[in-house]
Amino acid sequence: MLVQPTASRPRQAVWSLGFRPFFLGGSLFALIALLLWAGVLAGALAPAPPGGMLAWHRHEMLYGFAAAIIAGFLLTAVQNWSGIPGMSGRALQGVFLLWLLGRVSWFMPLPGSLLVLVEGSFLPLVALSLARPVLQRRLRNNYPIVVLVLLIAACQWLTLAGWLHQDELWQRRGIFAGLWLVTAMMTVLGGRVIPFFTRRGLGYLDAAPARPWLDRACLLLGVAVPLAFATGLADTPQASLAVLFFALFALHATRLVLWHDRGLWRVPLLWSLHLAYAWLALACLGMALWHSGVALSPSLVTHALTVGAMTGLILAMMARVSLGHTGRPLQVPTSIAWAFALMQLATLARVILPLFTSLGVSVSALCWSLALLLFLRHYLPILLRPRADGMPG
């Protein structure tokens, strides 16, 4: 356990480690952003950010919401990896303020070039903050994490360049390449924590068997997907990409089978992780079918990935990490189990119901919002208060 000198500890617990402000701020922002988007779709609201609401929605849910949670997790985890105290205090406040400024800049009268600079500075700064301790300790196993953050940042710059030049194709390529890079990040982090959390959560003392070949295959093929999107290869159905996505589906499904234990279905902190990862595998299967010529809506597949896999894994990880890093028992109340269940319902409503009724999007938004509200209701005081065990962090 790392112990900061008393004089260096922030007075307010929320600035003690990166997970606190970014889990809290990211969740609040996601809730507001989704309700705003739902209001636009219903015709009740008509905000006019530069480039239009679709460009704003696509950018902000990925490079605003998801990027915040990734930053919070990694800025916390790098302390455990390196043994060097993580970012806290004024430095953390500065990085969080930059992220927050990026969220409000869409609705401020800023020159386009300045908005791009504000939006595009956050992820490179996070990557730099990660790289220092990782390189200092020569943690080669974590070099890919830093590279992935930089690649996600590059995709954001591609998206912003498309926005600045009013090029829809650049924006789409930047968004989808960034989304599948986040998926590759989920593959790396999920491969580390899901089997570990599962073994610990079920009381097993031994570690899950290491399968480096499977981890490397998931990462290498996972990075090939965003490369295809960024270069335009994935703009239209391709037989080669069908093979790639079928291979990824097989790899992720293999992982799920190897990680599975019947006891996990009794533990909400575990089944929420496994179901989120299952949506990742299903999204790969959906993309494989689309590239094979099956009449399947890419939008439905994308939302299986963004709602079911990405947001589902985010919610489950925030719930588990927030307890562990605040010195609290790794147990959640019934309300959080309902939050996990509502996120699954939100995914089903967004992916399945639109095939039968136009109400699918509205039902999904309602379930999604309720899930985040339940999370914030329980975790807001946890994220704002000091650790229960009196330790720093």
Could you explain the architecture of this structure?
The protein has 393 residues and is mainly alpha-helical. The protein has two domains: 14-166, no CATH class; 211-386, no CATH class. It has twelve helices and no strands. The relative contact order is 0.10.
Q: What's the helix-strand series?
A: HHHHHHHHHHHH
- Spans with pLDDT under 50 lasting ≥5 residues? none
Q: What general form does the structure show? A: globular
**Average pLDDT over all residues:** 95
The class by helix and strand makeup works out as mainly alpha
**How many helix segments?**
12
Q: Gyration radius, to the nearest Å?
A: 20 Å
Query: How many discrete domains?
Result: 2
Q: What is the beta-strand fraction?
A: under 5%
CA-CA gap between termini: 10 Å
Summarize the biggest pleated sheet.
none
How much helix, percentage-wise, in residues? Answer: over 70%
Number of strands: 0
Features:
single chain, 393 residues, mainly alpha, 2 domains, 12 helices, 0% strand, globular
Please summarize what this structure is:
The chain has 393 residues and is mostly helical.
Please write out the topology.
Layout: H1 19-41, H2 53-82, H3 89-104, H4 112-136, H5 143-164, H6 168-201, H7 212-231, H8 239-259, H9 268-291, H10 298-324, H11 334-351, H12 360-384
Helix pairs in contact: 1-2, 1-12, 2-4, 2-6, 3-4, 4-5, 5-6, 6-7, 6-9, 6-10, 7-8, 8-9, 9-10, 9-11, 10-11, 10-12, 11-12
